[in-house]
């Protein structure tokens, strides 16, 4: 059987720096675990614009559609701020998400014990936290029509429309239930069925998909505002949360920040399962290209490393190996290694991007 295929799009700013560390881990799996990937690399974002005059060429798009998973670093930077909207670096990322039809955005909020004091919440509330927010990504109020700013009488009116079809709700619900089966069989769905018709339909369809195909998964429903309160009050009551595009945008940022630094946060965006059962998939750190620290060896590679761990789990059915990577990260942090973004007020000496990557590889070695 052919090796699983991986397209690496390192992008701009710190993207290539953090991706260099991920490549060490990919190589480690090939040499130490006999798990080899067919890795190809290409350009996205500003670097693609520099080379080709577009943030994503048709050829790169075709490659992204053909591989089992795409791993992306970051795009953008001040050098490209004045480009025309149509060729901005972010457009490359948006095109990938759209043409791969990545409707299910997974944002884990995982609190490594060594960083629990970094949270704005008390240690006992966040220590050991491990939840995933599944955000619908391709429909809802950011896309619904009509939209715009119109004039009515003598004043302006801003309009956006929340619109969800049954099939759009059903497919993201399925994605959440599948995820739950790989975790702890528990899903909480959040909407505002008390005041929004789209929320009423959301609740009905999630329940129907559950009753028909996932009766083994424990399902609860919560209003999204109450969900925000519960996430800060006692986040460990949740495991998988599924919600729409708008609520998911806010709740995923809220949940992620329970656990600390931007340099630690991975994400996955999944689409429909292909014939081989693997979903279309793009994995990327939540952070951007960090122009303020780019080129200085200061970037934290862990968000990108954990994004690769998500690829192992969700694209390649290698959940145990994903846990191995996560435990290696946990060990390195427990040993006290910190990149500059993880330094607390007590100070200390930060390690470089490459030293952090090397330490994770060493911890992987120690896991054998
Ligand atoms: P950013 O995430 O790049 O940086 C925000 C702050 O966090 C900066 O102080 C940065 O140094 C720090 N930071 C981010 N990642 C870090 C890491 N791995 N290690 C240590 N520190 C880290 O967001 P910002 O500054 O708003 O945007 C910079 C550029 O990135 C812009 O051009 C923006 O459009 C782009 N961007 C791209 C994204 C993507 O590719 N998915 C997402 C967000 C922003
Ligand atoms: Mg956001």
Automatic annotation (TrEMBL):
Self-association and partners: Homodimer.
Cited HAMAP family: LeuB_type1 (MF_01033)
Organism: Szabonella alba
Magnesium as UniProt keyword: yes
Broad class of the protein's primary localization: cytoplasm
Protein's recorded name: 3-isopropylmalate dehydrogenase
Biological role: Catalyzes the oxidation of 3-carboxy-2-hydroxy-4-methylpentanoate (3-isopropylmalate) to 3-carboxy-4-methyl-2-oxopentanoate. The product decarboxylates to 4-methyl-2 oxopentanoate.
InterPro entries in UniProt: IsoCit/isopropylmalate_DH_CS, IsoPropMal-DH-like_dom, Isopropylmalate_DH
Key word Metal-binding present: yes
């Amino acid at each position: 059987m052919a090796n699983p295929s991986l397209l690496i799009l390192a992008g701009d700013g710190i993207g290539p720096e953090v991706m260099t560390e991920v490549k060490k881990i990919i190589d480690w799996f090939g040499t130490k675990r006999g798990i080899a990937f067919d890795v190809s690399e290409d350009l996205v974002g500003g670097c693609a614009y520099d080379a080709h005059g577009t943030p994503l060429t048709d050829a790169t798009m075709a490659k992204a559609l053909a591989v089992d998973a795409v791993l992306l670093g970051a795009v953008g930077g001040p050098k490209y701020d004045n480009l025309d909207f149509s060729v901005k670096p972010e457009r490359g990322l948006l095109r990938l998400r759209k043409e791969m039809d990545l409707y299910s955005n997974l944002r884990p909020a995982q609190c490594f014990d060594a960083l629990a004091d970094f949270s704005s919440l008390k240690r006992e509330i966040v220590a050991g936290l491990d939840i995933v927010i599944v955000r619908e990504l391709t429909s809802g109020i950011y896309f619904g029509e009509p939209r715009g700013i119109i004039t009515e009488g003598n004043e302006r009116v801003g309009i956006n429309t929340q619109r969800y079809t049954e099939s759009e709700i059903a497919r993201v619900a399925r994605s959440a239930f599948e995820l739950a089966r790989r975790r702890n069989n528990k899903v909480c769905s959040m909407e505002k069925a008390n005041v929004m018709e789209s929320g009423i339909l959301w609740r009905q369809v999630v329940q129907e998909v559950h009753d028909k195909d996932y009766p083994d998964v424990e399902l609860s429903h919560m209003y999204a505002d109450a969900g925000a309160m519960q996430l800060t009050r006692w986040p460990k009551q949740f495991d998988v949360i599924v919600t729409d595009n708008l609520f998911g945008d806010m709740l995923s940022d809220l949940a992620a920040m329970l656990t600390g630094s931007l340099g630690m946060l991975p994400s996955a965006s999944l689409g429909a399962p292909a014939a081989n059962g693997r979903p279309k998939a793009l994995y990327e750190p939540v952070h951007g290209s960090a122009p303020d620290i780019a080129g200085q060896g200061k970037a934290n590679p862990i968000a990108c490393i954990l994004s690769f761990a998500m690829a192992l789990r969700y694209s390649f059915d290698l959940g145990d190996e994903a846990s191995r990577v996560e435990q290696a990260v946990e060990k390195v942090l427990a040993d006290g290694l910190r990149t500059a973004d993880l330094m607390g007020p007590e100070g200390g000496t930060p390690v470089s991007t490459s030293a952090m990557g090397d330490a994770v590889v060493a911890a992987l070695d120690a896991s054998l």
